[in-house]
Amino acid sequence: MRDIGDVVASRQLNTIDGGVVSLPDAHRLAHLQFRRFAGCPICHLHVRSVARRHDEIVAAGVVEIVVFHSDADSLRKYQSDLPFAVVADPDRTLYNEFGVGSAFAAIAHPRAWLAATRGAMQQRSLTAGVGRGEDHLGKPADFLIATDGRLLAARYGAHADDQWSVDEIIGLATRFSADS
Asked: Is it the case that residue 29 has pLDDT exceeding 50?
């Protein structure tokens, strides 16, 4: 697990659309979020809420980077239309580095079941959530990273639908922008 104040090593991450994103970003705060698998209905619901308000997040001085533990080809089927960087990490290199894990608790919480149902209805796909060969027990995590790589805030989800809302992302960005 990462602690507040830890420094994240600079790196370039390859995105599923063939681009590259810097972590940390030299000019903006970085919201690094770890999701589950490519067709995860809970993740679908959450990343779409972030996409709808992407302009507000950018206006708050934040670059959005979303990591999935699926391969890039699988992600392109479900996540290629997002307006921010999507990174495939099938070997879980970043997951391991940031201490983002899996547990039965990820799917045992009633809120996760409700979100999965809502997400599946929104996806209009009964097969997307199956994710054959994928880890369905993954937990989400959120990190806010300063331009110098310092970890400003972190949240390790207790279950699959336990992540920062867009309002929380913007609130944290506003707080840490005011502190600098």
From this structure: yes
